[in-house]
């Protein structure tokens, strides 16, 4: 059965998901600046990676709040956890200078972040409402 989560939990999750996506996009910009000769951007890229992972952990906490006590679905928790795991792997690859995996994983993380934002904005929007069959089942 689908439920409508409490609005404050949805808002918190949306903010965390959008912030995480923006920080991941900033990672690509900082990497580009470094590759074009702005060597100071590498330390900013590293610091932003840690901040991105921290915000990802906040997104996990917000996803849990959507579920309990928010009363919404638990569905956002798994993608939020996967993002943090991949971000942690990404940091390890970056520190190890394994660019053959670091660059494509960065692209995948951006796609994952946008998917998480899409999921966040679908919560409580009516697209998450129970189907007619589920409503009939509840009545019976």
Structural features:
140 residues, mainly alpha, 5 helices
Helix tally equals: 5
> How much is the radius of gyration in Å?
18 Å
What is the CA–CA distance across the termini? 13 Å
| Main beta sheet | none
Helix-strand category: mainly alpha
The unreliable regions are none
Determine the fraction of residues in helical runs and give it as a percent range.
over 70%
The rough form would be described as elongated
| Multimeric status of the protein | single chain
Write a structural description.
- This protein is 76% helix and 0% strand.
- The relative contact order is 0.19.
- The protein is mainly α.
- The chain contains 5 helices and no strands.
- The longest helix has 29 residues, at 7-35.
- It has helices spanning 7-35, 41-67, 77-95, 99-122, 132-139.
- The mean pLDDT is 91.
């Amino acid at each position: 059965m689908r439920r409508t989560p409490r609005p404050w939990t949805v808002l918190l999750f949306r903010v965390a998901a959008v912030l995480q996506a923006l920080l991941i996009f900033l990672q690509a910009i900082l990497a580009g600046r470094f590759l074009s000769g702005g060597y100071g951007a590498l330390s900013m890229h590293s610091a932003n990676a840690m901040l991105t992972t921290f915000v990802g952990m906040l997104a996990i906490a917000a996803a849990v709040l959507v579920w309990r006590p928010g009363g919404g679905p638990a569905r956002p928790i798994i993608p939020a956890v996967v993002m943090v795991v991949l971000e942690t792997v990404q940091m390890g690859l970056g520190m190890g200078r394994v660019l053959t995996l670091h660059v494509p994983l960065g692209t995948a993380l951006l796609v994952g972040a946008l998917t998480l934002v899409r999921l966040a904005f679908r919560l409580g929007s009516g697209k998450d409402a129970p189907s007619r069959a589920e409503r009939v089942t509840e009545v019976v």
